Recover the amino acids of this structure.
């Protein structure tokens, strides 16, 4: 073999070897690609499921929004983001336990993903908070929000447990309500605004909301130190016996003396305190202070029952009744002279914890009053289960009494219902002699309202009762206190 043919043979062998190597490498790479593709599919499906079935992760949800916005920018129709939060999820989770809470979230996810078409892109943003991407303008986003709230309003039933959820929904529509990067945040702002106004509703984003939420954050910041700085005061409003027109008791109504804003109404700060966990210590202070004032009145010879408003949060505190008992004991007040006012909506919460607190209240002998009664459509059967001694007709019915036949028949049926259950009826918000006469005619036992007295600081009530102060423009009747003031200790 000459040199040339030896080189040719060697190069042939080499190219054969190289081609073998090439094909082996190619096969290996193809295998690697296939493995990689498999892994990325597994990862995508894992990310897409995010523990709750059928839901997207935040990253995939944001990607879906970006894709949609891109289409809108190129001429397609608008889309909306619904930010849904379950108002009472934490409460139900506490009441029924985590396992039921998880089942509840799974069922909520299923309903959400189904309620606006077969595959609405839905994301679980935080515990009990979801975002949905829906097609259409503001009008159709509104209709979608209605469908979501209807779907969640259907009670959830797991074996013996029946839970009713309410939700607050904020809506932001692209491109009207902000850039792609802001659209979920703006829907969340709208949801916060719904919550601040009592929740269980939905509304569209408005640029003013940012300022409103910032304002709430500032107020909340001041509220945190209000107790330590001694900025709270209890005002008292008398409850009047409908027949004798004598004072039977006084309701404690909390006031906040804000250093810059002046007197802040509880309608503003109580929901804030409830929402952000400050109502516990504030509520304890109210109980202690009301007992201190009642003790002072007693020392000065005034015999009045004292009533305190108890929030839903307090009803779920397991030491509430013990705390009240301790405060009563410290101040020498009998339990039956202390009234707990609990709103109808809280009283009807069918949770174990709330019912247990009612049971303890019954055993402790407190006077229980169902406040703002009439708006919750409670049944006679549900009322019978509570240890209530009194119902307070909601102010809304009282203010309409003279004009509305409906308000009159509702007030009358509340009085009839209460009489059947042997409960006393108090009408709140009585402002005119006409309303007073109608209520007395219906058989109401006690009246409360500006007609008799505005809420006032404890010492003013005391001075009026002891006739140390003349009645002023409030047309306060001198005779109101004549029997309440006994002139000696009891
Ligand atoms: P509420 O317990 O139903 O108290 C009655 C409210 O009606 C009081 O408002 C009272 O000032 C007002 N009112 C009384 N008579 C009249 C009237 O003739 N006309 C009108 N228009 N209003 C009248 P306020 O003091 O602003 O309290 C509002 C709500 O804040 C209370 O409603 C209660 O739910 C809550 N609240 C007040 N203090 C406390 C508290 O210490 N703890 C808790 N958890 N809630 C409280
Ligand atoms: Mg009340
Ligand atoms: Mg009320």
């Amino acid at each position: 073999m000459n040199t040339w043919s030896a080189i040719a043979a060697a190069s042939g062998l080499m190219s054969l070897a190289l081609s073998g190597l090439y094909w082996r490498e190619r096969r290996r790479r193809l295998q690697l690609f296939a493995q990689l593709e498999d892994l990325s599919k597994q990862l995508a499906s894992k990310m897409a499921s995010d523990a709750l079935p059928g839901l997207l992760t935040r990253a995939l949800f944001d990607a879906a929004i970006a894709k949609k916005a891109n289409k809108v920018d190129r001429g397609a129709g608008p889309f909306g983001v619904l930010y849904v939060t379950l108002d009472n999820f934490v409460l139900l989770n506490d009441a029924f336990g985590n396992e039921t809470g998880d089942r509840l979230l799974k069922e909520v996810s299923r309903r959400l993903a189904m309620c606006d078409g077969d595959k609405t892109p839905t994301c679980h943003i935080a515990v009990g908070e979801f975002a949905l991407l829906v097609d259409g303008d503001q009008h159709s986003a509104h209709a979608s929000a209605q469908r979501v709230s209807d779907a969640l309003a259907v009670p959830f039933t797991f074996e013996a447990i029946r839970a009713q959820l309410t939700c607050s929904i904020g809506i932001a529509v692209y491109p009207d309500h902000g850039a792609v990067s802001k659209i979920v945040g703006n829907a969340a702002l709208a949801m916060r605004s719904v919550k601040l106004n009592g929740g269980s509703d939905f509304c569209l984003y408005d640029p003013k909301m940012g300022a409103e939420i910032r304002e709430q954050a500032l107020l909340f910041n001041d509220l945190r130190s209000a107790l330590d700085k001694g900025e709270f005061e209890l005002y008292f409003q008398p409850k009047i016996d409908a027949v004798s027109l004598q004072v039977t008791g006084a309701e404690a109504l909390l006031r906040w003396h804000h250093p810059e804003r002046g007197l802040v109404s509880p309608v503003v700060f109580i929901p804030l305190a409830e929402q952000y966990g400050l109502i516990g210590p504030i509520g304890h202070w109210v109980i202690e202070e009301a007992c201190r004032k009642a003790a002072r009145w007693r020392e000065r010879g005034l015999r009045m029952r004292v009533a305190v408003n108890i929030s839903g949060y307090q009803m779920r505190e397991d030491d509430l009744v013990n705390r009240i008992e301790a405060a009563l004991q410290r101040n020498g007040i009998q339990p039956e002279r202390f009234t707990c006012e609990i709103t109808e909506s809280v009283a009807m919460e069918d949770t174990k914890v709330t019912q247990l607190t009612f049971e303890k209240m019954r055993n402790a002998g407190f006077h229980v009053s169902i406040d703002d009664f009439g708006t919750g459509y409670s049944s006679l059967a549900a009322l019978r289960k509570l240890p209530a001694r009194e119902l307070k007709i909601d102010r809304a019915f009282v203010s309409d009494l003279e004009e509305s036949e409906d308000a009159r028949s509702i007030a009358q049926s509340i009085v009839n219902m209460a009489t059947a259950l042997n409960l006393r009826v108090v009408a709140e918000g009585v402002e005119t002699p006409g309303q007073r006469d109608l209520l007395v005619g219906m058989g109401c036992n006690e009246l409360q309202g500006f007609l008799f007295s505005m809420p006032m600081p404890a010492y003013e009530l005391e001075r009026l009762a002891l006739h140390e102060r003349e009645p002023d423009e409030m047309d306060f009747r001198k005779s109101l206190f004549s029997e309440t003031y006994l002139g000696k200790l009891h």
Residues 154 and 164 are 7 Å apart (CA to CA). The mean pLDDT is 86. The radius of gyration is 32 Å.
